[in-house]
Please model this.
Amino acid sequence: MTSSRSCKTWLKGIGLALLVVAVIGGMIGYDRGFREHRQPDWVTATPDMRFKYGSIGAEQDSGIPYWIFYVLPRVFPEKFKEDGKVVPGGYAALGVPWEMGQELPVGFTKKIIGFARVANNCAVCHTTTYRVSADSNPVFVVGGPGHTTNVQAFFRLLIDCARDPRFNADILMAEINRVTHLDWIDQLLYRFLIIPMTKQRLLEREAQFAWIYREDFPEWGRGRDDGMNLTKYFMIKAPMDDTFGPADMPAIWNLKKYDPAKGSRPNYASDTHDVHSVVIDSALGVLGAPPKNNARFMEQVEWLKAYLSELQPPNYPFPIDQARAASGKALFASHCADCHASDKTGTALPLAEIGTDRGRLDTWNKDAAIKANQVVKEMGLERKGLVEEDLPGYHIPFLDGLWLRAPYLHNGSVPTLRDLLEPVANRPKVFWRGYDVYDQAKVGFVTDTPEAQRVGTKLDTASKGGGNQGHEFGTALSAPEKEALVEYLKTL
Model:
């Protein structure tokens, strides 16, 4: 009897001990794998800082574990490529804007969800840098086009690293241990869970990214993406087709200028009904998955919409010849204002009238819009959404901050404003995108110096989706008139 009681007591003790161990293990597992921490206060100290470094929730599904992100340039330096050649310098070599003293580039967020993770926010594509000269420090402008960032190269980098046999726990942990000290719990998590799962998740996306490896397509290059195909292949999981529609990263300041009541719509082809919808869809693109919490996601959307509605472009920072600009203002009124300063602004102009490259239009259609709207509706998100009709042409852009929105046309195929006023035959046929030294004479960025060629990515306007034809308005003006018009455009 006594022996039986002792046995039961012993078993209860073991059971209790196991329960305690399980509870402690669960608490540790939750803390190190799932517990979400607020970002540091400096991230949200100002609206601009929040836009540049604040999380919009992408870390959960699209985040890269911080220490893996940190050591990729050390383990795989040969995977950092532009225009088919290896570029030294790690992530900075891919053109991401990087402020002095910051741990990560602009548009890269760091958040602890169990362990530190790195993801992106809207600023990665919508922050401009420019320099006065090759030896000056860059100026960072939030909300402007990310003309230096090579998004395609970053996508390829992650897939290429995951494909490599060296992406394994032994090699990555050896490199991580050279730069930091992880405690034994994180050592185990990284070795047996985090590294294998990260590799698996990256490789799962390889098929969706297949079209960015097509040899019959040109590279996007710096400052461009193939946005509607991204939506097709990721959101609605459409099969890969032969369309290719590269487009420049747009400026997203002063979004209150879009008035649906007047028919003005955002996006290059006026393919979204309103700003509310485009902010939702853009944020979903960054997340790469349905939001984990719709209420929190919509809080981020509302903040972004309010911030970007009021954000203003910077004034032209260099001297302006006021007398010449006054002459240019009269020329603008007679040659440009009917489209760019009227009720037509922000509405679609038929392709037959504008005549620019049709590649961006061909990547999207009514059926794709219907399917994408259904996907978002099933997420429980309410918006007017994408326009469920075939699109006739490209929208007539507002010209606020025009001086900082080079290269020009929707696909960035004309390097400067002065070049845009030339007939197609006289426009540059080949130039290099993504160099940030400003060209004050022609209003754009320097595109043809040896340094621009070394840093930038080559755009051949004969390539698929890269045509520089169309918008031949103002090309018949005299040279002095063109100079005056360009001088005025600096003031917008």
